Amino acid sequence: MTTDIDWDHPTDPKPGSWQLDHVKLYVDSKGTEGQYWNGTQTLLLTTVGRVSGNPVRTPLIYGEDEGRYLVVASKGGDPAHPLWYLNLTEHPEVRIQVGPRILQGTARTATAAERAAYWPLMLRHWPSYDEYQAKTDREIPIVVIEPVR
Q: What predicted TM-score, i.e. pTM, was given to this entire model?
């Protein structure tokens, strides 16, 4: 893991956004609130900015598979990938907060076979992912986060 990253002082979402309110609730409660949102579960993903080199924190819906955490780079079906996804493709070292637990990990894009297996699992957490995929020509990636043990 990179030692010069100040993981404890990330940039949060833009002021006035629902994402910032969600992150603040999650962080201020030390993960006792905010993990569950709109009927699903969320984690906080901190990536390293590919331009700034600084940590950036984003709330995301997640799934789990055999100790791995899964997140979907949907951006609501936008034609472009979300910035957090672009960040981790350049800097795969990440930090996640899942409830009160904070873990370092390595992120990667799921293989085609993994994506096929994980897509139905992620739809159980957020059925709108199918709508998002239908809105865009890009294949929406699923990211696999392997915690460092």
A: 0.93
